């Protein structure tokens, strides 16, 4: 009996692992609607351990780790850099298993905002400037419901599509655009206090080369790691409203 219940617990734990592995990263980028190719110019996350226990689509939860910048081994450049012009429309294609419309993008439990930052490449102190953010856009109708969040409704139902614009007039040169999802479904507790919980970050960096004769320099921004603090509102957040 004892060993049977242990086995049941082990199976339940495995089932859990499978569930929480429904995670995500950027598989492709369109520039003004033109697909640049799968994995092209994207610093796709490395595996965080040997499979099957390691994944390349796991969240980052350690806010002081370099992984928070461009994900696991995100300092390693991709051999390709995507050429763009100021004002171009970049479309990121977030997926879980494969780059198809049948893909589930991310587990439905993952409520939270989507964001994008831009930095000169390589980044320096406070060089990441936020250029896009969408979070909770509709309050829940009933108690203990999450409402409508950009990840769980818009991004997921939109087949993983996220649009950002290269800032108008931006000075030519190499930049990184750091797309990010922040899943808050376990963020009622801080990772610092309970490492089994905490906000889940999905950063992913895209290498672009801005062309043209733009003159706009980026203002001072934030650093990754550094920008986010464990106890800060929005990093600790209970997505289930008490109305
Ligand atoms: C950006 O490109 C995407 C994909 O082609 C398109 O769906 C979207 O409408 C475009 N956005 C703008 C503001 O042009
Ligand atoms: C978080 O990352 C920092 C820097 O790499 C490391 O020193 C620390 O041990 C990590 N903390 C946890 C809980 O893994
Ligand atoms: C892609 O992944 C989804 C699950 O996310 C699966 O249902 C679908 O069959 C997969 N398609 C292909 C072509 O592998
Ligand atoms: Cu998760």
From TrEMBL:
Q: Which cofactor does it need?
A: Cu(2+)
Q: Does the keyword Metal-binding apply?
A: yes
Question: Which first-to-last residue range defines the signal peptide?
Answer: 1-22
Q: What is catalyzed by this enzyme?
A: [(1->4)-beta-D-glucosyl]n+m + reduced acceptor + O2 = 4-dehydro-beta-D-glucosyl-[(1->4)-beta-D-glucosyl]n-1 + [(1->4)-beta-D-glucosyl]m + acceptor + H2O
Top-rank lineage group of the source organism: Eukaryota
CDD domains hit by this protein: LPMO_AA9
Q: Which Gene3D superfamilies does this UniProt record tie to the protein?
A: 2.70.50.70
- Group of enzyme by EC: oxidoreductase
Q: Is Signal among this UniProt entry's keywords?
A: yes
The biological process GO terms on file are:
cellulose catabolic process
**Auxiliary Activity family 9 catalytic domain span:** 23-239
- Cellular component, GO, one term: extracellular region
List its EC numbers. 1.14.99.56
Localization of this protein:
Secreted
Q: Which GO terms describe its molecular function?
A: hydrolase activity; metal ion binding; monooxygenase activity
Q: Which keywords fit this entry according to its UniProt record?
A: Carbohydrate metabolism, Cellulose degradation, Copper, Disulfide bond, Hydrolase, Metal-binding, Monooxygenase, Oxidoreductase, Polysaccharide degradation, Secreted, Signal
- Family, per entry: Belongs to the polysaccharide monooxygenase AA9 family.
Name the PANTHER family for this protein. ENDO-BETA-1,4-GLUCANASE D, PUTATIVE (AFU_ORTHOLOGUE AFUA_1G12560)-RELATED
Name of the featured protein: lytic cellulose monooxygenase (C4-dehydrogenating)
